[in-house]
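hi!! sorry for the late reply, been swamped w classes. u asked for the two structures so here they r. pasted raw, havent cleaned anything up. first the sequence of the first protein and right below it the tokens
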Amino acid sequence: MLAEVLIFVPSIARFREDFLLLRLEKAQIASLALLAENMLTPELEAELLENAGVYNVVLRRDEVRQLALSSPIPAPVHATYDLRLAGPYELIRDALACLVDPTERVIRVIGNPVKDAGLLIEITLNSVPLRDEMLAYGLRILILSALISMVTAVLLFLAVRRLMVLPIRRVVSHMRSYAEAPEDARRVIQPSAQVTELRDAEESLQSLQTQLTGALRQKERLAQLGGAVAKISHDLRNILTTAQLFADRLESSADPAVARTAPKLVNSISRAVGLCESTLAFGKAEEHPPRLERLSLRRLADDVAEGEGLSPATEPACLVDVPAGMMIRADGEQIHRVLTNLVRNARQAIEATGRAGTIEISAGEDDHDWWIRVGDTGPGLPAKAREHLFTAFQGGARKGGTGLGLAIAAELVRGHGGTITLERSDEEGSEFLIRLPKESLPAGQM
């Protein structure tokens, strides 16, 4: 708007000056025609004045003031304007006064004749045509200025969009993409902005993302290392617990040498179990892909029960209801760990009640899967444990438990392309169902 005002006001003042000078020039031409012929009819004189757009013309030549052309003036002269002495301020002031005054007035204008054809020329004219022409010119100026402003605005919008908006959107897009996978180095932004400040921002963001990606990779390695230690400790604890059960029996041996060494063996194993349990505060790591082979599920289930010191005659009792000839394709060591975790959890839950109970391992198959069911007659899982059952360090069902066993079991089953679910858990006991697919994936998709 400031630019519009700075353009419009001088332009309208200049137009008024040009308008009046043109009238002076036309009047001078008419008066010179009279001086050349020295005789004009009243009709021709009136026609000359009408063509010049004035009432009277006075041309001063040779120090003589001569009335060249005249006609009746409808009203007294309202104001006199001498263009020979007018400066920019007077021209602008008089132009604005003419615009705001719609009254029809007679004005006198004085100026220098063109081509030095006299000392001065003086005319009288009506102010209404002048004001009308100024309004029409002003309207054209405003329309042209509006068009120029619109074009300028569009060009400015395109320039800002190209130089500022699009680079900023690119930075935001890179930030969102990087947030989805900060460990992916391909998502680190590559500076390309043409504006110096934006390029500096992109370079700073690139440095930050690079450092953060490196830090995440380092933390991931540490987490995997800690998780590996935790898993090894968890499974080693299970192995040592089994060894501890057998070592307890050595204490009742009649052999004096065995009776003397048995307590030391039990204490050593107990310390090893405690050391394993103290390392379970670490995170988890990825398991190696399962090494699939044909194996007898019945033999595997019997090994699990025997390793836990369970049988149909023990307390709690362990029943294995698996067809003797049932063969599955799986990693025997990993499935052994899965079943051991489930059976041990069931035994601990039953023993915590102080009542008798039963653990059952059953299995079967259909057209697509082998299924293994592990159930017990324990007290069932608490609601809090069921919410995060297969999440490490959150799904522990007993006091002091880490919940790592079920998380490891779930990961091992997923590695086989199978699923493990809690089918039932209430006051009558709990039941887990494992499904292993018979159809194996190609080697490249394992």
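now the second protein. again sequence first, tokens right under
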Amino acid sequence: MSSKATSERLRLGAIDRSRPYSFDLVPDATVRAALADELDLSALRKLRFTGQLIPEGRADWRLEATLGATMVQPCGITLEPVTTRVDDPVTRAYQADLQVADLPAEQEMPEDDSIEPLPDTLDLAAVMAEALLLAVPPFPRAPGAEIGQVSVTEPGRTAMSDDDARPFAGLRDALKGSDD
């Protein structure tokens, strides 16, 4: 038997470590609208974050969850509404002995980006919002929407084509002429 999260913020030290801790977050329309606004979505129709915090070792926790969302965004080409459904797995490992040193502003990303220092309080809503941010399609496209070819030039001149922009196009033409 597992318990259900009644709050979005969990004090990890107060959770029973003898079994997994289940949670199921289903934000209301007001919270979804605020998230949609923050993420530049036209709408966030559905959102659910469900999973478990699983105790590991003496103090560590592993979060295994699923983010389900239905979002609407404008097409990057036509601006028509594009509806996207995501059902993404979310995994995090919270480790008590993870050392976070004062690192410079520019650093390499660690191989495993799901490992984080163990917080005193875990904000499940923040984990959900981060997972949603990562799931939003960066360039949504409506069915059949394509980027056409655009040719812009001064009046009376021939527009430059993609072939003209290739650095060895002239060499190719010169070689063809020498084969004759």
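hope this helps!! also noticed smth abt the second:
The CA atoms of residues 92 and 174 lie 59 Å apart.
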